């Protein structure tokens, strides 16, 4: 079963993620983190960087792979996912930028870039913990509704809804939001050993209910998490508000032995 943890706020969610990742880095210093952009993981990255500093955790060997990148956007553009990952993850955590990878959205090489990216993840031994956000339409990475649940990293067309949602990062101007992206596929994401999906706010409530309690369908790409052996969904009350089994998730988490972790 996908484990659902209902928290008070983003900081509490971030702290659960940070403790899990800190334990991983201590036991496997060259672990591979799967990284996401967007607003949902920001508190988690903040908490992790605070923990890394307070506990003097050595992150010099940590490797990472981001989920996605806009197609045709200069990597130096402040809203490229390359810049975003540098700003929100690499710099605050003090990671080695050489060890952190983002899909290459350069249009001249994009048709081969997906396969090369999947190969690079495999060569690194696979992703240990993948953090995920979710779109209001149920997308993970940029796998929009209808994406194959077996897909590898490839080019996708963004839906208009995703471009509307992301216009806030582009001066509220949808015309500045690229129409295409390169994204890890759902099949790629499912290969990570542990998936941690974070969602906050009532805008995500329907997507979360579909993900956890709906049928597995490419029309809610995140519902593929139900196929994964170790998936954790961390949500606030608002994002949990449409879950039918909410009381059971709370009961399970409250009675979970501390040694079990997530
Ligand atoms: C970002 C990504 C997207 C976002 C999703 C939610 O790398 O892959 O799937 O996680 O669009 O975005 P936020 O967190 O901004 O609501």
TrEMBL record:
Pathway: Amino-sugar metabolism; N-acetylneuraminate degradation; D-fructose 6-phosphate from N-acetylneuraminate: step 5/5. It catalyses: alpha-D-glucosamine 6-phosphate + H2O = beta-D-fructose 6-phosphate + NH4(+). Residues 13-231 form the Glucosamine/galactosamine-6-phosphate isomerase domain. Coiled coil: none annotated. This is Glucosamine-6-phosphate deaminase. Gene3D superfamilies: 3.40.50.1360. Allosterically activated by N-acetylglucosamine 6-phosphate (GlcNAc6P).
């Amino acid at each position: 079963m996908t484990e659902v943890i209902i928290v008070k706020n983003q900081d509490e969610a971030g702290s659960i993620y940070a403790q899990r990742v800190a334990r991983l880095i201590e036991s496997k210093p060259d672990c591979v983190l799967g990284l996401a952009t967007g607003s949902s993981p920001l508190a988690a990255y903040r908490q992790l960087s605070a923990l890394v500093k307070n506990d003097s955790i050595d992150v010099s060997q940590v490797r990472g792979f981001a989920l996605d990148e806009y197609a045709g956007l200069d990597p130096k553009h402040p809203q490229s996912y390359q810049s975003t990952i540098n700003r929100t993850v690499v710099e605050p955590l003090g990671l080695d930028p050489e060890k952190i990878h983002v899909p290459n959205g350069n249009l001249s090489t994009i048709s081969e870039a997906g396969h090369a990216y999947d190969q690079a993840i495999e060569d690194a031994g696979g992703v240990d913990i993948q953090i995920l956000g979710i779109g209001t339409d149920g997308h993970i990475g940029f796998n929009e509704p209808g994406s194959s649940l077996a897909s590898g990293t490839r080019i996708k067309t963004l839906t208009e809804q995703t471009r509307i949602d992301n216009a806030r990062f582009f001066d509220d101007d949808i015309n500045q939001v690229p129409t295409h992206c390169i994204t890890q596929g759902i099949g790629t994401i499912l290969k990570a050993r542990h998936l941690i999906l974070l969602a906050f706010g009532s805008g995500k409530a329907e997507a979360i209910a579909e993900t956890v309690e709906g049928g597995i369908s490419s029309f809610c790409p995140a519902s593929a998490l139900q196929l994964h052996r170790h998936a954790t969904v961390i949500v606030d009350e608002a994002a949990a508000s449409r879950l039918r089994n909410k009381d059971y998730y709370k009961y399970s988490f409250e009675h979970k032995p501390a040694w079990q972790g997530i």
